[in-house]
Amino acid sequence: MKDHALVTAWEDGEGRQADSGLEAAWAAIRAGLRRDIGARMFDQWLKPVRLGDYCPESQTLDLLVATDFSANFVSGQFGDRLRMAWRAANVGVREVRLHRAADATGPRLLEVVRVEPTVAPAPQPVASNFQPRHAFADFVTGDSNRLACSAALAMAGEAEPRFSPLFIHGGTGQGKTHLLHAIARAFSDHSPAAPVLYMSAERFMVEFVNAMRANETMAFKAKLRAARLLLIDDIQFIAGKGSTQEEFLHTINDLIDSGARIVVTADRPPQRLESIDARILSRLAGGLVADILPADLDLRLAILEAKRAVAGDPPVPDAVIDFLARSIRSNVRELEGAFNKLVAYGQLTGRAIDLDFAQGMLADAVRANARRITVDEIQKLCAAHYKIDASEMRSKRRARAVARPRQVAMYLAKKMTPRSLPEIGRIFGGRDHSTVIHAVRTIEGLRESNPDIDADVRALLRQLEG
């Protein structure tokens, strides 16, 4: 149900437009979001969002989006960031509402993102605040993220984990935040009365500074230390803040001593975090450190298959799934965003999703992800992996010790480069294209029957795609 004053403002056409203070805050928030999530993701989803009306009585601000799909996606992906950003802006906004922009039938309320008071009186279980898709059941695992997922499951389980804290590191958009939310949901399912506190490092700093200004540091500290599960996202952003780091150190020391569980994420391992107190690094590295590597081709395919299974119409054919998995390699979030974009445009326009449509819609994203892999690069990598001289890739020797690595390299050259079969043959010592075909079929067969060959190919693919 809409707020009555807000409904009246819309219907009468007298809604108060955002003043200059809100516009300045929104400009700063947009700049911060663009920096945090990357230009491509920002331009695709958040750049079109516009400021709408502001009601000073209820301190409610409208944000306008183009479609239902966009509103749902923005709320699911960026609701927490919007909430934190408007809270930190301190411009009198207590509630943010996402609307579809006005059309012939008037505005439609889609989602409410509440901006809570800066310092809550006490932490509460947070499972209800986490998106359903941020659950372990929706986290697709592969070689690149299996350790991190297994550690997260252990941290969320009923039994006391054998380690704490858990430090998960990996690049942007690889699933770190997903695991944090999944831990919180699973933990709250079996311990609903245990306080759970989730925040980004940036939010930690903002709340700590606000508490000091309001002379409420004791309440802030009490809230932190009451948590039985503390989850801190993007700890690298706490770097360089002396008093904040000191408080964070005391907090994790107290929580560890009390048996609480702590999970921290960052974009790099502890030893590479610059300007962070050595005592904090020692504490963070004293538990379990688990990395999330860039998703390999098999994992990207599995992620897209999982999304296709619940996407509904229009159907996404196998050729498009394969094109996405091979073209969008930077991170999982961007891969999912590309898939969502195709489905959204298909739903909005009624156009069937085929390979030509996908290639046209995603041309910019594909160009941004392109990294030209050369046959020479593949030859050198395979030679190093199998500990042979790179010249053997072009030699006439047929001993298995050099023939098998050469076949693997031909297989990868066919899979990873745009070179034709005759071109690949010529680069491998003037061989005929039929030799390349034989090599590709041989390695395809061995990958199914020989786990060692399959492991070699997977390792080489990860290095090339990374």
Automatic annotation (TrEMBL):
Signal peptide limits: none
Alphabetical list of PROSITE patterns matching this protein: DNAA
Pfam families registered for this protein in UniProt: Bac_DnaA (PF00308), Bac_DnaA_C (PF08299), DnaA_N (PF11638)
Binding site for ATP: G173, G175, K176, T177
Domain named AAA+ ATPase: residues: 162-296
Region (Domain IV, binds dsDNA) location: 347-466
Main subcellular localisation: cytoplasm
Any one of the GO BP annotations: regulation of DNA replication
Compartments in which it is found: Cytoplasm
GO cellular component, as recorded: cytoplasm; plasma membrane
Subunit composition and interactions: Oligomerizes as a right-handed, spiral filament on DNA at oriC.
PANTHER family, sorted: CHROMOSOMAL REPLICATION INITIATOR PROTEIN DNAA
Protein name listed in UniProt: Chromosomal replication initiator protein DnaA
Gene name, Swiss-Prot/TrEMBL: dnaA
